[in-house]
Design a protein that fits this description.
With 429 residues, the protein is of the alpha/beta class. It is 46% helix and 15% strand. It has 3 domains: 133 residues, Orthogonal Bundle (N-utilizing Substance Protein B Homolog, Chain A); 55 residues, 2-Layer Sandwich (Alpha-Beta Plaits), CATH 3.30.70.1170; 199 residues, Vaccinia Virus protein VP39 (Rossmann fold, 3-Layer(aba) Sandwich). It starts with a helix and ends with a strand. It binds S-adenosylmethionine. Belongs to the class I-like SAM-binding methyltransferase superfamily. RsmB/NOP family.
């Protein structure tokens, strides 16, 4: 798997240079076009592993190299190898041998010798290195200090569990399309296909192991979609009735748009600022055999609005993604504390603009996949002080329908069963 390590090193180096993994991974894969699907999948796994445990791997690398490694690709390859030795399931010597082979392909003659020496020294000195390893919280938890401090302050009872769950493999959860099948029938179809899964409740089924979607029974026929259980709360909370005019204001790739349409016969406008991301909405609508009006537009502006008020608005606003960090491991290292202020401003602009488009008596559901209160509770408090015609309704999660293991006033805390999302329901007087 030296090819996989090499691709992972390309991707990790790009992230450490400030680029998103969603852009860096395809770019890294294009550099090694001969990689098999298995090597590509392994490269993805190694990149995630390295970014999940980056602070720890970087601390070991610093302890093992008297001078910093200046070549970014060789440095990234060492981080990949160390992460595999620390937290991967592969045999130690296979990891080292493959990393040495991969180093030979970096174009640096000295790289093979250095990678060999560093990784073998790690294996030899592991116990002593571990004993002397930094006890800093950054190394212990593998998050930046500002992130740890903010969670400590905002969740004094839960911060450790939240950090720990963010470092685990995310579950793969499906939403069964009740227009085509039932949860019981789909569970049986999975069993018949030899796929282990269990019913979380309502439309949510969790797989024991993640799988490529083409292996899922009836995926192309629209029997199911991939959607975290926490995200499956949006459609039920909207309290939909047939014939309602509904806006999904930040809709791409269309998970919640499609869930709304699977749940109820409504007239839906699916808006997003990014035209390329809206292609995914169209693909999902087509696969699931659903209809919506899909429009490119800025939810913080009104140019796209035809003046007909909406009965329901879903505002699944752009955010830090801190509640889904186990799915977007690069975010821990790419986000900066000041980003929260920028997101909060955009979120407030979107919320205020959409409020004018809501009919009297109508409901707006504000959603983020963040756990930071600047984007969540504080945002809603600020909105309520400046909008006297807004009433906050309680967010009631019906746990007979779906799991909601830890919830604090609309804030779903991330758990093994679901991601961390925030929900606030506002009604116009
Ligand atoms: C959290 S994602 C939405 C996920 C989607 N609701 C789903 O369930 O699949 C946020 C989306 O907001 C879009 N976005 C960001 N700024 C926007 C704006 N000003 N107006 C409309 N959409 C925006 C992004 O392109 C992104 O697709």
């Amino acid at each position: 798997m030296q090819v996989a390590q090499l691709i992972a090193a390309h991707a990790v180096a790009e992230v450490l240079a400030g680029h998103n993994l969603t852009v860096s991974m395809p770019k890294a894969l294009r550099k090694v076009r001969s990689a098999t699907p298995q090597q590509q999948a392994a490269a993805q796994d190694y990149s995630y592993l390295t970014l999940r445990f980056y602070a720890e791997a970087a601390a070991y690398l610093a302890a093992l190299t008297p001078k910093p490694v200046t070549d970014v690709r060789v440095q990234a390859l060492l981080l990949v190898g160390l992460s595999q030795l620390l937290h991967g399931g592969d045999d130690d010597f296979t990891v080292v041998n493959q990393a040495v082979e991969a180093a030979g392909k970096t174009g640096q003659r000295w790289a093979k010798g250095l990678v060999n020496a560093v990784l073998r020294n790690f294996l030899r000195q592991r116990a002593a290195l571990q004993a002397n390893m930094s006890k800093s919280e950054v190394v212990q938890w593998n998050y930046p200090q500002w992130w740890i401090d903010l969670l400590k302050q905002q969740y004094p009872d839960d911060w450790q569990a939240m950090l720990a769950v963010g470092n685990t493999h995310p579950p793969m959860t499906l939403r069964v399309n009740l227009r085509k099948t039932s949860a019981e029938a789909y569970l049986q179809a999975l069993r018949d296909a030899g796929i282990a899964a269990h019913h979380l409740g309502g439309t949510a089924i969790q797989l024991q192991q993640p799988l490529p979607v083409y292996q899922l029974p009836g995926f192309e026929q629209g029997w199911c979609s991939v959607q975290d259980a926490g995200a499956q709360w949006a459609a039920p909370l909207l309290d939909l009735e047939p014939g309602m005019r509904v806006l999904d204001a930040c809709s791409a790739p269309g998970g919640k748009t499609c869930h709304i349409l699977e749940s109820c016969e409504v007239e839906l406008l699916s808006l997003d600022a990014e035209a390329t991301r809206l292609q995914r909405v169209n693909e999902n609508l087509q696969r699931l055999d659903l209809q919506a009006t899909v429009v490119t537009g800025d939810a913080a502006q009104s140019g796209w609005f035809d003046g007909k008020l909406f009965d329901r608005i879903l505002a699944d606003v752009p955010c830090s993604a801190s509640g889904i960090v186990r799915r977007h491991v690069d975010m821990k290292w790419l986000r900066r504390p000041q980003d929260l202020t920028t997101f909060a401003q955009t979120q407030q602009q979107i919320l205020s603009n959409l409020w004018h488009m809501l009919a009297k008596g109508g409901k707006l559901l504000y959603v983020t996949c963040s756990v930071f209160q600047q984007e969540n509770e504080m945002q809603i408090q600020q909105f309520l002080t400046s909008h006297a015609d807004a009433t906050r309704l309680p967010v009631v999660f019906d746990t007979a329908l779906l799991p909601c293991e830890r919830m604090v006033s609309g804030q779903l805390l991330p758990t093994p069963a679901h991601d961390g999302l925030f929900y606030a329901l506002l009604q116009k007087q």
